[in-house]
Amino acid sequence: MEEETIKEYMKTDVVSVDKEAKLAEIAKIMTEKNIGSVIVVENNKPIGIITERDIVRAIGKGKGLETKAEEIMTKSLITIREDSPITGALALMRQFNIRHLPVIDDKGNLKGILSIRDVAKALDDMFETMGEY
Questions:
Q1: pLDDT tens sequence across 51-64
Q2: Is there a contact between 61 and 38 (Cβ–Cβ < 8 Å)?
Q3: Quick one: angle between helices 116-130 and 86-96, nearest 10?
Q4: Residue 110 sits in a domain of what CATH number?
Q5: Alpha carbon distance 24, 133 (integer Å)
Q6: Is the distance from CB of 23 to CB of 63 less than 8 angstroms?
Q7: DSSP label at residue 89
Q8: Distances from the Cα of 114 to the Cαs of 37, 42, 54, 79, in angstroms?
Q9: How many domains does the chain have?
Q10: Which domain holds residue 86?
């Protein structure tokens, strides 16, 4: 049985912002789209992530609504390749205690996003398939 890859479960409509985007704009995007994070990109390459927690921290530290994305983003971005096995994503998420993984191609371009929910669905599908034998 061949293992499922990231590409089969990732969401391709990933929401990204430029590193110059302002905090107010980012919060508005996240609210309108009902999402918990945005990927910060430069030349279609992911360079950071901003989560709800990052926004709360920034405001708590006195940062204003004009603060740029690059000032509040988490820079130590963990990514995964779209052709990686789904269990690789689970291992990364557990190791780094994260819930979102930007998905890249072999050139480092942003291709999608994988959430812990997507991984749970993949594992559920795998267990269902195993039960059929």
A1: 999 999 999 999 99
A2: no
A3: 130
A4: 3.10.580.10
A5: 52
A6: yes
A7: H
A8: 12, 20, 19, 10
A9: 1
A10: 6-130
